[in-house]
Every structure is written in structure tokens, then in C-alpha cells.
Structures
1.
Amino acid sequence: MDFSNKTVIVTGAGNGIGKGIALLYAEKGANIVLADMDEKAGSQTAREINEQGGEALFVKTDVRLESDIVRLMETAHQTYGQIDILINNAGKGLFKSPFDVSVEEWEDVINTNLRSVFLGSREAAKYMRQNKEGGSIVNMASTRAIMSEPNSEGYAATKGGILAITHALAASLSEYRITVNAISPGWIETGDYSALSKVDHEQHFSKRVGMPDDIARACLYLTANENNFVTGINLVVDGGMTRKMIYEE
């Protein structure tokens, strides 16, 4: 899987899963365009990549704004000449009683998590369709798209919507040789991994909690030219948790 000179855009790339994705693509030789609202974190990640001999550019982006997304794609194309891969990773949580969620809060999470996927994919695809080999889009969903805890309606709705828009976009963009897939992470620890308990790890079939690199490697698989037969899918990366039967004693 060769990503040399490929241009990869990662939203929400300043921290956590997005940062892990950006770092791995950079390691594989890609040009990285990092988008995030957190200017300090995004700039630091770009600096880290460049100091390690990679090629990275940070563009401050509010994915809720169409104008910001249009500018992000224009900047990436002007800087590197093409757009090959888009990872729609930016997102936020909304965990609050449905009786207390305001319309403004609801619209904020919808626009951040779901509308941004449509806008980002649309704008990136305008450039990808010019490529001889097309392009690849990966949308970050969640196992919460198919299972829930209380008070998670907004987050669940956006992640379920991401699964649906993924196969719809896969159909619409197939004419232009653009693959579109989703990844549904389970528990991916982005904080202090060493602080996790044995119980945390043992509840997974994999016997460990996930790490950002687990999702980054899944992105590599879904965006490699060799795997362009894979499109429209939801790849669950959760250590087996959504396949585990749980009974109370």
C-alpha cells in the first residue's frame, strides 16, 4: 500500500484519532492537510510531521461552515495539485437527557458530525473526479450508530446518518472511481492508556482497549488503490464488543 505523494485531508486532526490517522499517513509518505478548529493542536501536529521529515499543512477549519470546507479543499488543491483521500473524522459528543437538549444543541451536533460529512465529501469529490485513479473517502461513524446508552440521541442520530450517507455517496460517486466507506470505532482510548484497568481490557474479545493506530490502519486499508473493490461498507473496529453477548448473573 503506497501513499507516496498522495494528498490526504484529515478533519479533526489536532488530537486523538484524527492525529493518529494523520501521523500514520505521513509515515507512509503522503502529503497531509490537517483541518481542525483547535489552531494550537493542529499546528503542533503539522509541526511534528514536518520535523520528522514529512509534509504537512494545517488549515484552521470549522466543519460546520460551508465556506470553511470550500476553502480547505481549495487550499489543499492549490498547495499539492490534487486531492486523493479525505478522512471525515471531525465530530463532537452530545450526551444529555432528550428532555433537556435545546434545538441549538441538536443542530450544532448535526452540523458538526453529519452535515460536515456531506459538505466535505461533495467538495473533495469535485477535485477527486479529475484524478485518473479517482479517490477515496472514509467517514468516521461509531458503534453507537447501532447500539446506545441513555441520553445519546443526537450523537447516535449523526453516526447512524453517517452510515446511510456513506453507501449513498458510494453509489453517487462510483461513476468517478471514488470509493466511500465508513469506520465504526468502539472504545478507542485517546488519553492515558496505561491508566486502563485489566477489566477494561478483558471485556473485549481482543483482550485490549483500542488505540488510534487501530483506526489509522483501517483507514490505510480502505484508501489503498489495491482495495478499490471495497466501497459502501461500514468497517467495525471495536475489539469484538458489538458481537459480545452480555448477561447479568
2.
Amino acid sequence: MFKKLFLILFSFAAQAAAEPHVVHSDRGGSLAARLEEISRIKAAGEPVEIRGRVCFSTCTMFLGVPGTCVSPKTIFGFHGPSRGGRRLPRKNFDYFSRVMASYYPDRLADWFLTSGRHRIRGVYKIRGSELIRQGLAKACT
């Protein structure tokens, strides 16, 4: 009886873990909050589907979660870390830039560290279709 109950519960847990985390339009937010959210998603083994109109700032960090797919129509917006739109002190700027970049595929991380992070006001926009074309993301089906 116990074994049967365990198998049923395990089956439900496995099904729940397989449910995707769907990202709708997301303009980013707190780096600390996003790191916490991504940590929970990874621990649960949830794939991520980025399907909204936009995915800006810290939302782009979902690109590094295993199993993430993107809509070709989503516009991704990249900029460097800041506090309220103001540049951080150099040491903090470098540190938090590297934290963000560690969540990107390697080539995207390289671009971010050499170019993308230097924009503080506004964002560099890249369509999901371009990320897919360059092999930096897979398309959602």
C-alpha cells in the first residue's frame, strides 16, 4: 500500500515539475529577486517559455535556464546593471555585469560584457527570431 501511494505521489510531483514557467511581457526588475526566482525554477526543473511581447533587463537572464525556449516575436532588451537608471560604481558595475552574463549562453555573454552592458539608459533590442537564428535560443513550439 505504501509503495503504491509513494508511486502515485511521485508521479504527481514529476508532472508538476514538468509544467513550464511561462514568461509573458516582462520589463525586468530587481536582480536579487530575479536570481531568487531563477534559482527556484531551476530547482524545480521547470522549463521556461518566453512568449511575451517583451523581455527586458533581468528577464533576459531566463535565457540561461536549461530548457528555455523563446517566441520569435519577443523583443529582448539588454542593458547594464544600474540603480534607478544611474551607473553603479565601477567595482559593483563589473561584478553585477558578470553575474548577469553568467546566465547567458557564452556568445551572448561575451557580447553583453563587451557591448551590451555599457548602455544604461534604454536597451539594445534583439528579436527572439535573431537569437534563434544565431543558435543562442531555441524556438517555442
